Predict the structure.
Amino acid sequence: MVVPSYCCVCIRCVRSIGTNTRLQKQKKTGAGNMSSNVKTRFAPSPTGHLHVGGARTAIYCWAFARANEGKFLLRIEDTDQKRSSEQATAGFFEDLQWLNILWDEGPTFEKAGGGDEGPYFQAQRLPVYREQLQKLFDAGLAYYAFETQKELGEERKKAREEKRAYRYNRASLELSAEIIQQNLDEGKPHVVRFKVPEGGPLTMQDCVIGDVTVERSEVDDFVIFKGDGYPTYHFAVVVDDALMNVTHVFRGQEHLNNTFKHNLLQDALGFEHPTYAHMSLIFNPDGSKMSKRDKDKTLRKFVKENQIEKAPAGCVSDEAWATWQASKDNQLSTEDATHLSEALGVTLPEINVGDFKRAGYMPEVLLNYLCLLGWSPGNDVEQFDAAFLVENFSLDRIVKSPAKFDRAKLLAFNLDALQKLTSEEFESRLFSWCEVYAPKFAALENFALFASANHERSKTYKDSTETSHFLIEPDDEISWPESKPVKKALLKGEVTGLSRIPAIIDGLKSLEEWTNESIDACLHALADSLADGSLGKVAQPVRIAVAGGPVSPPIGDTLVLLGKESTLHRLERCHEHFASTCDV
RNA sequence: GGUCCCAUCGUCUAGUCAGGUCAGGACACCAGGUUUUCAUCCUGGGAACAGGGGUUCGAAUCCCCUUGGGAUCACCA
């Protein structure tokens, strides 16, 4: 079998740098009318949720494919039998779908999927990998290794102590054919390693970083087939990308060093090198890596600081709690973490796409913001939609340096986008969100008014419900914690707000029509007669009385939403409450 | 620790490849103003080329060193 020397011999590699600009020019000048062969892929491992870093990669893959009239492929890398789950896989489909990142090839899910180069689950491709592995055996580029993980672990530890990088020592390469056969016959656990060919320094090409070169000794004989009979990531990714005709590989920079291994494997297998684009990582504002562990860390910190000894009743089992507390390495399950955070009133950091969905962001905005973390269209353009992205996306504008995720800016973008929505769009989107995350609000009788009252003042859908919680509380459960603004509006001043309430009750009671206009007129009239025309002196006590706090939608909307009966009842209760506890 | 990557306002970035406008925008922040609360909205403001050497008439931009940050060194992907 012919083993090509590395890279630069294939057409695609020579062409790779700047491919996009060329293709785009073709497209725009109309010079190239045949559909391009560009194919990108997003290949998540279904071991958790789609997080923002992964989502950004998926968006870039998708945008690049669309920008070049190519295909976008989704492949599920589920070769880790222990950690992969169907539930996680479904979660990825849903999150991608929510962002409206649809794949042309891959597992079928609603409007996405298809293609005839599958299966697109790696766990179903064992025969394919075995066949390719045989090519390596035939070429003398693969060999069995019988060291146990424990032995290897000790070697590694030793290397660390001696302050050098660990490299596999090739001990199993020295084994005689007889010994190997004997081990195999005895069913001795084994892996298959790739034999790195002799040669000079290794150079990889990356169209965002540029060329990177390392000494060949930096790459050891890595494992390509695991003890459980499944291929490792390195082997499966190389085989699948080649067999599925992937031309451009976008991935996080944590894979940069892996690329040398992948290039070596591609050469050994006779595959072309795809074009690589390694993207910088996304960090938290404090500079730490944004990871799924952040939620666990937040909870742990809160529990420790508040010296909480056991979980609040009914949210986490004693057993799960004990395991969690036993070691920092034991993370709470997503469900338990959510329950615990709710019970403790801790806000968990948003990390996953699903977290932002739950927090009430628009998918278009998350997509927009994520794009901006590592790519910029120039010309001071920041807010754009998917169509603009597809029209303008290019590799040469991807930023090399890492970015910190700034929630304040995301929030500002979301506010802008929400405000651009028509009231009908806002209402329908808010309703869909409430159906899932705040069903009590979805059940509101006058939902249209609830939506319009909140449209202008909400940065997220969640804002709408959080500042209107009093709407779904029973009249008799409203309480009035004496915060500063509450005291100011009700108890302070020569004439207190509280003392005006009886007159306000009378005024409102006399209304025949209970509409925004009639209430408004009534309150203005009351303001004139009771407070020299200062509407705030009337409206604010009313707001506090009906809402239990100083924040609510505009007062007219608030009262219409509540209804006349509730409004009056709450005003009376509030007056009684303060009259009995205070000396007014 | 070895190897590799990265470096412009607090943050995301434009400008770097083809050296030459008081380094531009957005978010955040600060000060005013509008508003019945919160949120909006309007006006204004401060704010950066990590440091040091070169090359050049001229350096954010090209080269080198230092410093700082990050990734990686699995039978995880």
